[in-house]
Design brief:
The complex is a heterodimer. By secondary structure, chain A is α+β, with helices and mostly antiparallel strands. Chain A has helices at residues 18-28, 57-69, 102-110, 131-141, 164-170, and strands spanning 3-13, 33-40, 46-56, 73-80, 84-95, 114-118, 122-129, 146-151, 155-158. Chain B folds into 3 domains: 17-188, Rossmann fold; 207-361, TPP-binding domain (Rossmann fold), CATH 3.40.50.1220; 382-554, Thiamin diphosphate (ThDP)-binding fold, Pyr/PP domains (Rossmann fold, 3-Layer(aba) Sandwich). Chain B is globular and about 70 Å long. Classes of the chains: A alpha+beta, B alpha/beta. The A-B interface holds A 12-13, 15-17, 20-21, 24, 27-28, 42-44, 61-62, 65-66, 68-69, 71-74, 161-162, 164-165, 167-171 and B 1-6, 135-136, 139-140, 143-147, 164, 195-200, 320-322, 324-326.
């Protein structure tokens, strides 16, 4: 079965321990989580987890059902690449010594990144985009002395309509 | 805006009473109709035990000898009665000892509420004495769990716990209550939980799916049903019987479905699976429509999935959408409660007999009888067989007993040969295969159904895993009948070693204690049978006894259970020897 990047969106109640319950569904089937983000959703008191996995669609269909089976999960959905609009944010900490090279400014500008903070010893660059975008900037900034790098999980908006309100209404 | 906020049900105003969290726990149990619970006290749950002491005229606490015993007793109680079983334990080791029973209840869909004490909330996460993160530990094996740190949360959480445990596909729930929440006073009011906004226990049955199922069944020439525990959990026995009788469909059961239809019913064609009957296993791969009802295509039922009923259209009646297409791809899925969906199905079915197709089952049964059953039930060997013990129990209980079996060879023999007249009569650990289940489960079963004969059939291995519960039987005067089929081996593992590991009997031979002396130590009447001619009288004495009774039957040491589907083989490759 072909493995592909799949974005799983899970709407849940905002309860202690629920994230653990959700991740055990993946662990149980030996599925590794590529990235994970938890945030509030458009509905008050409903949280949304965005989990990206590299798996076969067939297995994810089964995982979705197991997720939906959890009492405090309102709804779970999966989407393939192209069915969502998504972004990740990356931060890069660069040694201040090197940023005065003319090339640095050019890289920032060409990559549509921005300088978030300038401190005595370092600058922090921010870049929002796909994993490929932030990876590309990573490679370009590496020669400048990358002191730290961090990237968020994917946040994704689906093109398809979510029917969370209906689920909440019907129960 | 894409979504709208939904109003939650308002908590109706009722007169409030100022009581402690621990008293609230007991009051919640009473409000849910709990009259018996099984448990073991300890530091972090002592306030609740103090209230149980005060309320002992209203609620019966049974002191088991181990927390695992408490869970299995609660399971036995739930399985025979359909009510929620309740187990209670302290924090730390008390809580972790519950896990096996919880996992068992989860995989076998048994309604159970477990209450654990927890260290005081200011100590959480400090590795305090007897602290364990039971919420994290129990998460993968519970339908729901919740930690309570404030007394005021107790009524709502307990109400949710009972609602979740018994609604939809039942399962175990764990409520962990910190000691300070037990001591804390608050204004108590209780309201039963009627719904949870994120949870739909019973999916809607689509009319079109029932019609599609009926069309397939009506057009079938060789239909076959496999039913599971869903029939029993849904209370759908009558509806099920009406369906199979009208459509004339040969019906086989999984181990969890046993007893939903009387063994002697002409359409009951026996058990499917690894040690199931020959005919339904072989003919699973010849039927043209396979109708699965309230079962989940466990690997022990299907054998190799790549060679499982590939020729057949598959219909799956199921309450849990996650079970549909999990293991076997269905052609028609009928979601919903079995009782309701079968009721809808009945008028759409054509009357049928399928006489020729039936004959095939009878022919294969004749082969199995000749090759296996005859020798199992009427052995020509000198040593006693497990099968003949079951035959004797059937005879003397007239098929009215509830049979509680443990795990292993004796379990397969018990399920194959027990003759059931009544539903909820086969209580066994199916999915998890928990050795040690039967003795405590029999306690719970007998207490929930005191008018029924409850016979525990246990191997010498599993018996010693929870043998301490003889203490519970003695102290609480539970008149269960205990039959240990002693072959001085972990028989099922030994059988596999014989067949697949060149008879290297690694750690399966048991040097057993004197079981009679042990039973007598607990003041339980006990008899050992070593010869065939002693069996009838011994079983008769056991059945006639008004008290608990222990019967040890020394059986042939190296008998094997057949038929058998070797693991990895197709279900139709079932071997008779």
């Amino acid at each position: 079965m072909k493995k592909e990047l799949i974005t799983v969106s899970i709407y849940t109640e905002n309860f202690v321990g629920l994230l653990n319950r959700v991740t055990t569904i993946f662990t149980k089937r030996h599925v590794n989580i590529e990235s994970i983000t938890a945030s509030k959703s458009e509905i008050e008191n409903v949280h949304r987890y965005t989990i990206v996995v590299k798996e076969s669609e067939n297995l994810i269909e089964k995982i979705i059902k197991q997720l939906e089976k959890q009492i405090d999960v309102v709804g779970a959905f999966y989407h393939l690449e192209g069915q969502t609009i998504f972004q990740e944010i990356a931060l890069y900490k660069i040694d201040i010594e090197n940023v005065y090279e003319s090339k640095f400014k050019e890289i920032i500008s060409v990559n549509h990144a921005r300088i978030l903070e300038i401190e005595k010893k370092f600058v922090v660059v921010e870049k929002t985009g796909t994993k490929e975008d932030t990876d590309a900037l990573y490679n370009e900034l590496k020669p400048f002395g990358l002191m730290q790098f961090v990237r968020s999980g994917r946040v994704a908006i689906t093109k398809e309509r979510m029917n969370i309100s209906e689920i909440l209404h019907n129960n | 805006m894409e979504t709208q906020i939904v109003k939650q049900n308002q908590y109706l105003e009722q007169p409030k009473e100022r009581i402690s969290g621990s008293e609230a726990v007991v009051r919640c149990l009473l409000a849910e109709g709990v009259d018996v619970l099984y448990g073991y006290p300890g530091g972090a749950i002592m306030p609740v035990y103090d209230e149980l002491y005060k309320y002992q005229d209203k609620i019966h606490h049974v002191l088991t000898r181990h927390e695992q015993g408490a869970t299995h007793a609660a399971q036995g109680y739930a399985r025979i009665s359909g009510k929620v079983g309740v187990a209670i334990a302290t924090s730390g080791p008390g809580a972790t000892n519950l896990i096996t029973g919880i996992a068992d209840a989860q995989i076998d869909s048994t309604p159970m509420v477990c209450i654990t004490g927890q260290v005081a909330s200011h100590l959480l996460g400090t590795d305090a004495f007897q602290e364990t993160d039971i919420i994290s530990i129990s998460t993968p094996v519970t339908k729901w769990n919740c930690q309570v740190t404030k007394a005021s949360e107790i009524p709502k959480v307990m109400a949710k716990a009972f609602y979740i445990a018994q609604s939809g596909r039942p399962g175990p729930v764990l409520v962990d209550i910190t000691k300070d929440a037990q001591f804390e006073e608050f204004d108590f009011q209780y309201k039963k939980c009627k719904n949870i906004r994120s949870y739909s226990p019973i999916p809607i049955t689509e009319k079109s799916s029932v019609e599609a199922a009926a069309n397939l069944i009506n057009a079938a020439k060789k239909p076959m049903i496999i039913w599971g525990q869903g029939i029993i959990l849904g209370g759908a026995e009558e509806e099920f019987k009406a369906v199979i009788e009208k459509a004339g469909i040969p019906s086989a059961w999984t181990i969890m479905g046993a007893s939903a239809l009387p063994t002697a019913h002409c359409l009951n064609i026996g058990m499917v699976g690894m040690h199931g009957n020959y005919a339904p296993n072989v003919l699973t791969n010849q039927c043209d429509v396979l109708i699965a009802i309230g079962m989940r295509f466990d690997d022990r039922v299907t054998g190799d999935l790549n060679r499982y009923a590939k020729q057949a259209k598959i219909i799956h009646f199921e309450i849990d959408p996650a079970e549909v297409d999990k293991n076997v791809k269905t052609d028609v899925a009928v979601l919903g409660d079995a009782k309701e969906s079968l009721k809808e199905l009945l008028p759409l079915l054509k009357t049928n007999k399928h006489t020729k197709w039936h004959q095939k089952f009878k022919d294969l049964y004749a082969i199995e009888f000749e090759e296996v059953i005859q020798e199992d039930l009427n052995p020509t060997k000198e040593g006693l067989s497990m099968g003949e013990v079951l035959k004797e129990i059937n005879k003397q209980t007239k098929g009215e007993a509830a049979i509680v079996s443990d795990v292993g060879q004796h379990q397969m023999i018990a399920c194959r040969y027990a003759e059931f007249k009544n539903t909820r009569s086969n209580i066994t650990s199916g999915g998890l295969g928990t050795m040690g289940f039967a003795l405590p489960a029999a306690i719970g079963a007998k207490m929930a159904a005191p008018d029924r004969e409850v016979v525990a059939i246990i191997g010498d291995g599993g018996y010693q895993m929870t043998i301490q519960e003889l203490g519970t039987i003695f102290q609480s005067k539970v008149p269960v009948k205990i039959v240990v089929l002693n072959n001085e081996f972990l028989g099922m593992v030994r059988q596999w070693q014989q067949l697949f590991f060149d008879k290297r009997y690694a750690s399966t031979e048991m040097t057993n204690p004197d079981f009679i002396t042990i039973a007598k130590g607990y003041h339980i009447e006990a008899t050992r049978v070593t010869k065939r001619e002693e069996l009838t009288d011994a079983v008769s004495n056991m059945i006639d006894s008004k008290e608990a009774y222990f019967l040890e039957v020394c059986v042939e040491k190296e008998n094997n259970v057949f038929p058998m589907v070797p693991s990895g083989a197709s279900i139709s490759e079932v071997k008779l020897r």
